[in-house]
Amino acid sequence: MFKLPSTTIALIIVCSGSIIGPLGMAGVNIAIPNLAEDLNASAKMIAWMPTLYLLSSVMFMLPCGKIADNYGRKRVYASGLALNALASLMCALATSIEWVLFWRFIQGAAGAMIFGIGVAIITSVTPDNKRGMALGTSAACVYIGLSAAPAMGGWLTEMWGWRAVFYSQIPLVLMLLITIKLFLQGEWKNDKKSPFDWWGTVIFSLFALCLVLGLSDLPRMSGWLLTLLSITFLMLFIVHQSRSRRPLIRVQMFLESRVFSLSLSTSFLMYASNFSLAFLLSLYLQYIKGLSPAHAGKIVLLQAVSMAIMAPLAGKFADKIQPRLLATLGCIIVMIGFFLLSLLTVNSSTTYISGSLLLLGIGFGLFSTPNNNAIMGAVDKSELGVASSSMNLSRTIGNLFGMSLINLIVQYYLGDSTFSAQNSPALMSTISLAFKMSLGFVILASCISALRGRA
């Protein structure tokens, strides 16, 4: 009887999870206008939907990586899938925006377990000379999920309402859990368990919480105080980790490898620029251009489609070409795309938007896999779980930082008013400023990427 090797089975399972996961992110973004109207939610409350998901992911990313290294990466990955299914069900049953926001926070923790550990599983079972291709395939599946999610989210919302977007994830996750139980044999963890750093977890969680609350409350004095407090907690976390015998992450890893530290910095800036894109374009296309959810979803998916095409090609090249060259080229192409979007007006055509998204997708496809390969190749195999979590943490903190600034911009221009066509001038000002901010992030990322050195 023909039997697939464990490497192939692990790759199939992680890739399947990478396709399903974006339904909880990109698919929900398209459903936001419908959800806001149904639950009578203000613009300020709606802006917290992606932010709370990210906040939870940041808070739990490093602890999940450490737990996975100690107790098993497959076990933590499967637990994350199960928790994601539960959170999706509860969001679908919600009768208030507050209930949705609570379960989005829980879903963010599940996302930390899934995306923080998936790359570590692939790296654990894949030979070094094939790692780039495997990571490229995994990244392509994330982008395939991101490609399908807006269109599927728009179609489900039009046919059955926003709740269907959450319900649709549940059977897919259950099928994947059954597949893991039946076909993925073995476990990947360290031979010797290291004690868990509870104090480090608490300090890091306080940093993330104060950062989000502080940025969302600027320019008030309380916002400045919370932001300053978040910086204090971050410095305390770094000092604590450097002195701890059982750190969540060895801060020396950043000093030992310039490639590791600068690749993470580049990742932070690139994802800070990009995460709010689907959220903002969903509002622009539906409220300002008057498009249906399904039509808006089809336009937004262009970026992810081009990413899905480029990522495996970039992964193949990443095994042979220095990551710095490919990743920096990707940054420059993304920079051009955001420059075009920063010039967006109420009269911009869908063709203009589609061309900009195509550039963003090609650029991100070239950037992400070589950058990830550089990060995972710069650490010892005993720290793959922490390195994978660090990689996803830089991405998630970048997403969180960028989205927190979007919350600030939304509050400044729209306050407690609801999203509507009548508020289109304020909404357009919000979108324009947000894209200019993203352009600034990408310019800085391009410079850092070029300076990272040879892997």
Automatic annotation (TrEMBL):
Domain of life the protein comes from:
Bacteria
Keyword Transport listed: yes
Q: List the transmembrane segments.
A: 9-33, 45-64, 76-95, 101-122, 134-152, 164-184, 196-215, 221-239, 259-287, 299-318, 325-346, 352-375, 396-414, 426-451
CDD domains the record matches: MFS_MMR_MDR_like
Gene3D superfamilies for this protein: MFS general substrate transporter like domains, Multidrug resistance protein D
Which UniProt keywords are listed? Membrane, Transmembrane, Transmembrane helix, Transport
GO MF terms held by the record? transmembrane transporter activity
Q: How does it sit in the membrane?
A: Multi-pass membrane protein
Domain named Major facilitator superfamily (MFS) profile is located at 10-452
One GO cellular component term, please give it.
Answer: membrane
Cellular compartment(s):
Membrane
Q: Which residues form the signal peptide?
A: none
Is Lipoprotein a UniProt keyword of this protein?
no
- The name this protein carries in UniProt is Major facilitator superfamily (MFS) profile domain-containing protein
Instruction: Give the source species.
Output: Pseudoalteromonas nigrifaciens
